[in-house]
Design a protein that fits this description.
Chain lengths: ~400, ~300
C-alpha cells in the first residue's frame, strides 16, 4: 500500500512544484490570502460600530465566525482554477498522455492531483484565517470557541475538497480549459448558495447546526470523489467524442442495450430483464435495507412520540383521532378512489420523482424521498398498534373491521 | 514481444482499428505506416494499455493489454504523438519525475539520466526549463524519457520528425542500438527513407485495416510487382533482333536502353547478358530499377482508394 501511495505522492509533488512556478496561480492565492483578512477586519470594525447603535448582539456574536468562514473561502476559490488547470490543462496540452502510458493506476493519478488541488489553497486559507484572528483580537468582538473554530476549519476543508472534486468531474467532461471554465459555473453557483445557507445556519442556528453543514458538504464531496474516480479512466480522458452530441449514436446505443439482442418479448424478458436485475442486485439489497430502516425508524418514532401526545389528549380529541384512523383504514369506504390504475399511476409518479431527484443529487435526494415514502408505512402501523388495531389484519384483509374498536 | 490478434477498436460508429494482426519479435523493428487518422495512434494506445480493445487481443512483453495494463505499461517505453513535456520543469526534474515513477533507485536514476542527456546532447541544457528548449530538443528529451526505464518494448511515434539531420542520425543510431539489444520496436513514421534504413518489417494501415505487411522487399514486391531491370547501351542499338529469355517481359524500349521485368532474375538475367553479347550489343550496364518504399506505399494507398498510381 505504501508503494501505491508513493506514486500518489510523486504526482502530488510534481503538481505542487508546477503550481509554485505559475504566477497565474500564485498571485491570486497570495493576494486573497493576505488582503482579505485586512479587508474583513475593516468590514468588522464598521459593522461593530453600526450594530452597536441598535444593540444587535446576535449578529455581533456571530460576526467573527461568519467572517472566518468567508475569509477561509476566498483562497479556496483558487482550488477551482488549480484543479481545472491540472486536469483539463494537461489534457489540452497533451501532457497527460505520457503519464497515462506510465505504470500508474487511475486512482493514483486522481488522488495525486486531488490532494494538491485541495491542499495548497487550503493551507493558504488557514493562513488567511490565522492572520484575521490576529487582527480581530484588537476589536470588541466575541471570538468563536475552540469547538466552533474546529467546525469552521473542518467546514473550510470540506469546501476545498468539494470544489476540487467537482472540478475534476467537470474536467473529465471537458476537452479544453475554456469549456471547463464555462462548466465551472455549475460549481460556483451551487457553492455560493451553499455558503448562504451555511451563513444562515451560523446566525440563526446553534453551534450544533454547523455539524450538519460539515457532514452535508463532506457527503457531497465524497459522492463527487466517487463519481470522479468512476469517470477518471485512461480511455475516457483521451476520448474527444464528448465534444460532440451524436444523437443518432445515442439512440442506437440505447436501443441496442435496451433490446439486448432479443428478437421477441419473451426473449427480451429472458435475456435483458434477468441480466439487468442481476446488475442492480446490490443496489436493490441496499434499498431494501434502507426501506426496512425507514419503516422501523418511523414506527419507533411514532410509538415514542405519539403515545406521549395521546396520553395528554382529551377524550374529545381521542375520539376525533379514532374517527380519522377509522376512515383512513376502512378502504371499502373509499370506494373507487383507490382503484388499481390510481395506485399504479401514483407509484409510477413516486418512482419518477425519486429518479429525477436522485439524478440531480447523486442519488441523495432520491433516497431521502424514498425513505419518506416507505417510512410512512411504519408510522401508520405504529398508529394502528397504539389504537389496538391489528395491522396484520388490515394488511391481509385490505379493510378495517369497525368492531375492533 | 508484441503480438496482436484481430485487434480492433470502435468509437461509436467509427471503426478506428479493424482486425489488426501484427507480430514483432525481440530485436526486430516493425514500421507501421499510414495516413493521419489511419489508426496508428489508436493501435499504439491499445498496445500501451491506454485504450481497451473492442475486439481481439494483444500481448506486449508477455502481458495481455486488457488484463495486465499495469504490467504492460511498466515494460513499455512510448514516445507519444504529443510529447507531453512540462514546460515549467527542467530536463533533469522531468527525467527524475519519470525515473521515480518507474521506481528506479536514486543512484540508477542519476546514472541513466546523465547518460541519456549526454547521449542526446542535452546535458548542458539539463538545468534549463523545458519551455526554453527548441522543438528538436524537446523531441529528444521525450525520447530519452521513453527510454529511462530501459523498456523491453518501444513504441515510437514519429521519433525524428522535428529534428535536424544530425539529431535524427543520433536517434536512428540509438534505435539501431536498442534493436541489437534485443528490444522489440514499433515505429510509426512518415519518413519512409528512415523506415527503409531501420525497419525489418513494414505494415501499411488504411482506415484501420492492414493492407499489406511483411519484410521490406516482400512489401515492395507485393505492391509494385516483380523487380524491373534496365539495360543501358553505350550507343544507339537496334534491339529488333533480340529475343528475350523465357519469363522476361519487355516494358519499354529506347535506342539506348531496354526496360524488362522478370520473376526469376537469377535465371533470366545471365541468359539475357549472353544473348546481348552474342549479338555484339554495346552493353554498358544491366541494373535493377530501384523500387523504393515510398513507391510501394503510394501504390498501395492508390490501390486502396481505387485510383491509379502516377509514378
Amino acid at each position: 500500500m505504501l508503494n501505491k501511495l508513493r506514486l500518489v505522492w510523486i504526482v502530488a509533488q510534481r503538481e505542487m512544484r508546477d503550481q509554485f512556478r505559475d504566477w497565474r496561480v500564485l498571485a491570486p492565492m497570495i493576494i486573497l490570502t493576505l488582503a482579505f483578512p485586512f479587508l474583513m477586519d475593516q468590514f468588522a470594525k464598521q459593522t461593530v460600530n453600526f450594530l452597536n447603535q441598535y444593540d444587535a448582539n446576535l449578529i455581533l456574536d456571530r460576526l467573527a465566525p461568519f467572517s472566518i468562514m468567508i475569509i477561509g473561502f476566498f483562497p479556496i476559490t483558487v482550488s477551482l482554477v488549480v484543479a481545472l488547470e491540472s486536469f483539463v490543462g494537461e489534457k489540452e496540452r497533451g501532457t497527460i498522455e505520457p503519464l497515462l502510458t506510465a505504470p500508474f493506476d487511475d486512482w493514483q493519478l486522481y488522488f495525486g492531483k486531488l490532494f494538491v488541488g485541495a491542499a495548497t489553497p487550503l493551507i493558504a486559507s488557514y493562513l488567511s484565517i490565522g492572520l484575521y484572528l490576529l487582527l480581530v483580537r484588537r476589536q470588541d468582538l466575541a471570538m468563536p470557541s475552540p469547538f466552533v473554530m474546529m467546525q469552521l476549519l473542518l467546514l473550510t476543508g470540506a469546501h476545498a475538497v468539494l470544489m476540487v472534486s467537482a472540478a475534476i468531474v467537470i474536467s473529465v467532461q471537458s476537452t479544453s480549459v475554456k469549456a471547463a471554465n464555462l462548466l465551472a459555473s455549475f460549481i460556483v453557483i451551487p457553492v455560493a448558495i451553499l455558503m448562504q445557507s451555511e451563513a444562515a445556519m451560523l446566525f440563526w442556528g446553534d453551534d450544533k447546526m454547523l455539524w450538519l453543514a460539515v457532514v452535508g458538504v463532506l457527503v457531497i464531496a465524497a459522492l463527487l470523489i466517487r463519481l470522479g474516480i468512476a469517470h477518471f479512466e485512461r480511455e475516457y480522458l483521451l476520448g474527444r467524442e464528448i465534444d460532440s452530441l451524436n444523437f443518432k449514436w445515442m439512440l442506437k446505443t440505447f436501443w441496442q442495450k435496451f433490446v439486448g439482442g432479443a428478437n421477441s418479448v419473451g426473449a427480451w424478458y429472458r435475456l435483458s430483464v434477468g441480466a439487468a436485475l442481476r446488475r442492480v442486485a446490490p443496489s436493490v439489497v441496499i434499498m431494501l435495507f434502507v426501506a426496512a430502516f425507514s419503516v422501523w425508524f418511523s414506527y419507533d418514532w411514532v410509538q415514542t412520540n405519539l403515545s406521549r401526545t395521546l396520553s395528554r389528549a382529551t377524550p374529545a380529541q381521542l375520539e376525533e383521532v379514532e374517527e380519522t384512523v377509522n376512515e383512513l383504514s376502512n378502504f371499502s369506504s373509499l370506494g373507487g378512489k383507490f382503484s388499481a390504475s390510481y395506485l399504479f399511476l401514483n407509484n409510477t409518479r413516486a418512482v419518477a420523482v425519486i429518479s429525477a431527484l436522485g439524478a440531480v443529487s447523486f442519488g441523495v435526494l432520491g433516497v431521502l424521498f424514498y425513505m419518506l415514502n416507505v417510512g410512512l408505512i411504519g408510522g401508520v402501523y405504529a398508529v394502528w398498534k397504539l389504537l389496538n388495531v391489528s395491522s396484520l389484519f388490515v394488511f391481509f384483509d385490505g379493510r378495517f373491521a369497525a368492531r375492533n374498536f | 514481444m508484441i503480438e496482436t490478434q484481430d485487434l480492433s477498436k470502435q468509437f461509436h460508429d467509427f471503426m478506428a482499428v479493424d482486425g489488426v494482426n501484427l507480430t514483432v519479435g525481440a530485436g526486430k523493428i516493425l514500421a507501421l505506416l499510414g495516413q493521419n487518422g489511419a489508426g496508428k495512434t489508436t493501435t499504439v494506445r491499445m498496445l500501451t494499455a491506454i485504450l481497451h480493445p473492442s475486439r481481439g487481443s494483444a500481448r506486449v512483453a508477455g502481458y495481455d493489454v486488457a488484463k495486465n495494463g499495469h504490467a504492460v505499461r511498466a515494460e513499455v517505453g512510448a514516445l507519444t504523438e504529443h510529447h507531453g513535456l512540462y514546460m515549467r520543469m527542467t530536463a533533469l526534474e522531468y527525467m527524475d519525475f519519470f525515473g521515480r515513477i518507474y521506481n528506479l533507485s536514486p543512484a540508477l536514476r542519476k546514472s541513466r539520466i546523465d547518460n541519456l542527456l549526454e547521449y542526446f546532447g542535452l546535458a548542458e541544457a539539463a538545468k534549463r526549463r523545458i519551455g526554453e528548449y527548441s522543438k528538436g530538443m524537446r523531441q529528444k528529451l521525450a525520447l530519452a524519457r521513453a527510454m529511462i526505464h530501459e523498456p523491453s518494448v518501444l513504441l515510437l511515434d514519429e521519433p525524428t520528425s522535428a529534428m535536424d539531420p544530425e539529431s535524427a542520425r543520433l536517434v536512428r543510431d540509438e534505435i539501431a542500438r536498442l534493436k541489437s539489444a534485443q528490444r522489440a520496436i514499433m515505429l510509426c513514421s512518415h519518413n519512409l527513407s528512415e523506415v527503409e534504413a531501420l525497419a525489418d518489417q513494414v505494415a501499411i494501415i488504411y482506415r484501420g485495416k492492414i493492407l499489406i505487411q511483411g519484410g521490406l522487399d516482400e512489401v515492395k514486391t507485393q505492391a509494385l510487382g516483380s523487380p524491373k531491370y534496365i539495360v543501358q547501351f553505350a550507343s544507339a542499338w537496334d534491339a529488333a533482333g533480340l529475343e528475350l529469355p523465357q519469363g522476361m517481359e519487355l516494358l519499354e524500349k529506347t535506342p539506348t536502353s531496354l526496360k524488362v521485368k522478370t520473376d526469376a532474375p537469377q535465371q533470366t538475367n545471365p541468359e539475357l547478358i549472353r544473348r546481348l553479347a552474342a549479338l555484339s550489343a554495346p552493353t554498358l550496364a544491366l541494373q535493377e530499377e530501384k523500387q523504393t518504399l515510398e513507391q510501394a506505399y503510394l501504390q498501395t494507398m492508390a490501390a486502396a482508394r481505387g485510383i491509379e498510381y502516377a509514378q
